[in-house]
Amino acid sequence: MQTIDTYNFQGKKALIRVDFNVPLNDKFEITDDTRMRAAIPTIRKVLAGGGAVILMSHLGRPKGVDSKYSLKHIQKHLEELLGQPVRFADDCIGESAKKQAAELKPGEVLLLENLRYYAEEEGKPRGLADDASDEEKKAAKAAVKESQKKFVADLASLGDVWINDAFGTAHRAHASTALIAKYFPNDKLFGYVMEGELKAVDSVMKDPKRPFTAIMGGSKVSSKIDIIMNLMDNLILGGGMTYTFKAALGGHVGSSICEADKLDLALDIMRIAKEKGVNLVLSDQAVIADGFSNDANTKLADPMNIPDGWEGLDIGPETRERFAKVIEESKTILWNGPVGVFEMPKFAEGTRAIAEAIVKATEKGAFSLIGGGDSVAAINQFGLADKVSYVSTGGGALLEYIEGKELPGITAIRGE
Ligand code: AMP
User: Fold this and answer.
1) How far is ligand 1, taken at its centre, from the CA of residue 157, in Å?
2) Between 20 and 30 A from 409 (CA), which of 181, 214, 306, 322?
3) Residue of the nearest CA to atom 18 in ligand 1?
4) Angle 348-353-358 from CA coordinates, rounded to 5°
5) What is the pLDDT of residues 326-347, one digit of tens each?
6) Which residues contact 103 (CB under 8 A, 6 or more apart)?
7) What separation, in Å, do the N-terminal and C-terminal C-alpha atoms of the chain show?
């Protein structure tokens, strides 16, 4: 298989799928450019090898052409990061993209407009009425799948070699992340971001040192938990999902976030953990608040017994200590999702304690892997990102890869 290090880019136009889905504030300023910086080595490698670069990405979730989601907003910053001008095509396919791609010279960079201006990128119909019949839905899906073929061909026609460097979308079989591969049977490669991600995950998953502990947080119960349990010795569950588990156990969770339709799933997860001998660690002390606000009144409570009008927004100090002890005794650690509403300082202490325990375990030789937008934002917020083993650009993609699922964006290159 060709790799980015063995491929000869001389005179070639490399069509690179990057993940420039960066957060922007209301003035369209980039608030975190991690994903852009991550892609720079791949771009530089092509340019240094005598090639030209055509970048394609999505940004946000536009429903069609919408300047709010234009990649034009990031052009200037990309120029700064690369230290050279970047051309811009205001459509990712069509005449202007074709013309600009054709005129591109070795050493030059062209950025294409948001792929998701087109429904064909994801291959999902748009604008269906809420009351559309099954027949109408089926017809709309078939129509977009049909027009997707031309979209993929048009995109592919812009370059000579396709590089997939977007790990965050590798679990999606979209036009630019997977379907395009068939046009480049001998000219498809992983970029350095993808190579790095796969190497990091493969190295842990092949023979993880034990105990292996996963910390899952976030607001909701994830359907991934029961699959991940095949791999773990300890599974720490925190965040909003705690209250679905407590409610399933007959607890009274006040106004805490609780998914009434997931009570059975929570019970299943607890049963499977027992059967598999996984040590399931749940919170038994919550920081509760009388409102979803940093100014709310707070106190500690048993998450099985939260008064009406109060909600659990973080783990309390005793639970922080219990969680930290399990983490610090682990040799392999996977963290996905904050254990509290860390965006508000009053409820960030639990998540901070997790991050600090992971750093301590890493210092003692554990391998720690952090994935998912919110845990990555948290570890950055605490200034601890360089003290863990690996920070992944993927959330869903990372979990699916760890589960052993085939990711379309990876299979498209490896051809397995
Ligand atoms: P998710 O959107 O499911 O990936 O979860 C991430 C979000 O979960 C973060 O924005 C946290 O603020 C939120 N979160 C964590 N713990 C809680 C909690 N106890 N109640 C409500 N939201 C929470």
Assistant:
1) 42
2) 214
3) 240
4) 130
5) 999 999 999 999 999 999 999 9
6) none
7) 12
